[in-house]
Write a structure and sequence with these properties.
With 781 residues, this protein is α+β, with helices and mostly antiparallel strands. The chain is 48% helix and 15% strand. It has 4 domains: 6-33 and 69-193, Trna Endonuclease, Chain: A, domain 1 (3-Layer(aba) Sandwich); 224-383, no CATH class; 400-590, no CATH class; 623-779, no CATH class. The protein has 31 helices and 21 strands. The longest helix is centred in the C-terminal third of the chain and has 30 residues, at 623-652. The N and C termini lie far apart (109 Å).
Length: 781
């Protein structure tokens, strides 16, 4: 029933702007972080006392002033701009009072009214400068009553052909999933535009351009009817396995409205498992241009109709005796977001805004009632070999693909990813909104977490259906539990709680370090180092019998925290050189160097913590040890070259070069390449002798080929065959030729370590130097 008088109608309509020029200027103003006003020169000082500042040179009678918007206004303007960017071009220019009954005073200040082709959005905004728990009991208790009035008022002004949706936009508010407030809110069929939804909509705007509105409407009005008229199209019905499917052609504009893409974002978390990645803007624009230029796609879009409220109907009109397929009419409810697009979203959304969206048809294969996991498997089968599926999305999908796998290795991958997902999504986690999961992009990447957890020992490693040796010694997973699903949940909870407690310890006690982005804790390199350190300390404490498998996560953390304090105190007082050098470490291996550095900081304060891998790493940093290994290695190579060439000449005389013809050709080529390189770099040097271009593998090939050969008519009583000269027992058998020269391959692998002086992370340890020394002593007794 109408209850607005004409004055009220006019007052409201005055606040609603349809002029595109005015809307554009309003958008520009709201997009800015500053408010602008023009004031008389005589009033400038008064305004300056209130925080305003001059923005431009004074005009004849006025001066332009600006002032930074407060946090609340900035947020409200940001949401207004988001609706403008979604494509709404009938909007309020300023806040308006919207009546919800005839009673005087029953009005509510509304921040945003956005009117589309057949939708109206009523938006209220609430924001907080710091994270806090959301409680809006008063607003939500009265929401249904007010919404009824709001709808009547807007229907009276604009007509009842519109669908009206109330949106509550929040920033920095966290709601408990089972809260009474949210239950009241959702019972009013309203939409909560929280931080996750805001980020997702921004991504839609960025990636979907003109098509973003369709996905937005599908998200907000999912399963709600656009109108009561059904879409009726000819179709063929068939069976694939045990699944019913339909083949038909449909106009793109109809699929744009009824279609929806299950993007892998927190905004769609209620629909998990989801699987899709966001569109590539450049590719989307290219497809739109291709369509505008009369291009077409002969392959089918794949969708799934999955709505219990708005089910499709098929009326068969004929069936051939020799076919299981039948022809008929498919009746599709005209409702938002009922056709989940499994494959072909670029093709569908490429039609948005083109001249062919209403007069072209596109082929579709449609399933009915597929579970999300089944959709996911189809998606992965189609896309698993395509680069478009991001590593982050693949890792996140491990949970849904492999959680119930019969293969232990796959279940451990799923367990790993589920822990990271929990760290990213739980409001209990200090890493909430800090980890990129699937299509949600944040500061930290997903992969360093899965890599770190896999290397930490907190969960076991598996190959096929077998636990790798000793990988269950320190893990928080009971391999004896006969119920793998139960144990997966227990282990996920335990590892999540332990890692959360460790990060919470840093946030609570070392906030300056925690809040510093791309620093020692909140960075991809820091992720690996910190979580691996947690695992390393856990292993040390287990070996030391300070903790055992029966410890709770809290008890375990209480023991670990002492060593984390040693780390963090050291990082607080790190000297400038170490800080600079560590932060400069980039690329492959940087994360492991950070981990070893973290271990060394703990070791300096707690010498009892000295794991084998840290001992080895310190050895590899020992320049004296490297020098010793290098000196021995150079002498071994000199001996090998001299001895091999002498033996070849004694056995083959002046034909010795022909005997190693293929090796010589490679050496000559290496020498020419070296000469060419020196020439290009302006190095004046004599041409390289090909005999200086032998490598260890060349020596090995010569020794193997001429293993037991002797000179004809040997007159040298001291001549040793290659077998006699180069057989060295490495302690792994000494019967075959392969066993006797195995040392050459080992020596060559060690040579690659000492030959590259710049790679400190890949240098010699003490055991390797001792091996090289043993070979040296064999030749230089």
């Amino acid at each position: 029933m109408a209850f607005l008088d004409q004055t009220q109608i006019e007052t409201i309509k005055e606040k609603i702007v349809e002029d595109l020029s005015i809307l554009g200027k309003t958008y520009k103003s709201k997009k800015s972080n500053y408010q602008l006003i023009s004031v008389d020169h005589s009033l400038i000082e008064n305004y300056k006392n209130e925080g305003w500042e001059e923005y431009s040179k004074p005009l004849k009678t006025k001066t332009l002033l600006r002032k930074e918007k407060d946090y609340s206004k900035k947020f409200k303007d940001t949401i207004w701009c988001q609706f403008y960017e979604l494509g709404f071009r009938i909007m309020n220019s300023e806040h308006l009072n919207l009546p919800f009954s005839k009673t005087e005073g029953d009005v509510k200040e509304i921040e945003i009214i956005a009117i589309g082709e057949d939708t109206i959005f009523i938006v209220e905004c609430r924001s907080a400068e710091t994270l806090k728990k959301g409680s809006f009991k008063q607003e939500f208790d009265l929401l249904k009553l007010r919404l009824d009035g709001f709808k009547k008022a807007l229907f009276q002004i604009y007509g009842n052909q519109y669908k009206i949706k109330y949106v509550f936009a929040t920033k920095n508010f966290r709601f408990e999933k089972e809260s009474h407030d949210l239950e009241k809110f959702y019972s009013s069929n309203s939409f909560l535009l929280d931080d996750n939804a805001y980020t997702y909509i921004n991504n839609l705007i960025k990636h979907y351009k003109k098509a973003c509105l369709y996905q937005f409407l599908g998200m907000v009005f999912k399963n709600e009817k656009i109108n009561n008229e059904k879409i009726e199209i000819p179709a063929v019905k068939g069976m694939m396995g045990k699944k019913t499917y339909y083949m038909f052609s449909i106009e793109p504009h109809l699929l744009l409205k009824t279609g929806y893409v299950l993007h892998r974002t927190r905004a769609n978390i209620s629909e998990f498992p989801t699987y899709q990645r966001l569109l590539i803007p450049k590719r989307l624009s290219g497809i739109s241009k291709f369509i505008e230029d009369d291009g077409y796609f002969p392959n089918s879009v794949i969708v799934n109709f999955n709505s219990s409220r708005n089910q499709i109907q098929f009326e068969a009109s004929s069936k051939l005796n020799n076919s299981n397929s039948c022809f008929g009419t498919l009746k599709i409810p005209n409702a938002y977001g009922i056709a989940y697009i499994i494959d072909g979203q670029h093709r569908v959304y490429g039609y948005a805004g083109t001249k062919y969206s209403k007069n072209n048809t596109i082929p579709v294969v449609a399933f009915e009632g597929l579970e999300s996991v089944e959709q996911l498997k189809i998606f992965m089968d189609i896309n698993q070999n395509q680069k478009a599926v991001s590593p982050s999305l693949k890792l996140d999908l491990e949970v849904d693909l492999n959680w119930d796998s019969k293969i232990l290795e796959y279940r451990m991958r799923a367990l790993n990813s589920s822990i990271v997902r929990e760290l990213a999504n739980s409001i209990k986690s200090p890493l909430y909104n800090k980890i990129s999961v699937a299509e949600d992009k944040f500061l930290l990447e997903f992969k360093p977490f899965t890599t770190a957890i896999a290397h930490s020992g907190l969960i076991p490693k598996a190959k096929g259906n077998k636990i790798k040796e000793n990988s269950d010694l320190y893990c928080l997973y009971n391999i004896s539990n006969q119920d793998p699903q139960e144990e997966m949940e227990i282990s996920k909870k335990a590892v999540f709680e332990l890692i959360t407690a460790c990060y919470d310890f840093v946030e609570s006690n070392y906030l300056e370090i925690f809040n510093r982005e791309k620093y020692f804790i909140i960075s991809n390199r820091g992720t690996y180092a910190f979580i691996c350190l947690i695992g390393s300390i856990n292993s040390f404490l287990v070996d030391n019998k300070d903790i055992n498998k029966n410890f709770t996560s809290k008890q375990r953390f209480d023991k670990i925290s002492k060593y984390l304090k040693y780390l963090m105190d050291s990082l607080v007082n790190i000297n400038n050189d170490d800080e600079t050098n560590l932060l400069k470490e980039l690329g492959s291996g940087a994360d492991k160097k950070w981990f070893r550095y973290f271990q060394s900081l703990v070791n300096k304060i707690a010498p009892e913590y000295n794991p084998e891998e840290l001992i080895e790493w310190n050895e590899r940093q020992n320049d004296e040890l490297q020098s010793k290994g290098r000196v021995y290695g150079v002498e071994i190579e000199k001996f090998m070259k001299k001895s091999i060439l002498i033996k070849l000449e004694e056995i083959f005389h002046n034909k010795w070069e022909l005997e190693i013809g293929s090796i010589k050709r490679e050496c000559v080529d290496r020498a020419l390449q070296e000469d060419e390189k020196n020439h290009k770099e302006g190095i004046i040097k004599e041409s390289c002798d090909w005999k200086d271009m032998f490598n260890i593998n060349d020596y090995k090939a010569i020794i193997e080929k001429h293993w037991s050969k002797k000179p004809d008519n040997n007159i040298n009583p001291n001549f040793k065959t290659f077998e006699n000269e180069f057989s060295i027992d490495t302690g792994n058998g000494f019967n075959s030729k392969a066993e006797k020269i195995k040392w050459i391959s080992i020596f060559n692998s060690h040579r690659n370590l000492w030959a590259h002086e710049g790679t400190k992370g890949k240098r010699l340890n003490r055991t390797e130097v001792e091996f090289i020394e043993k070979i040296y002593n064999h030749f230089y007794k």
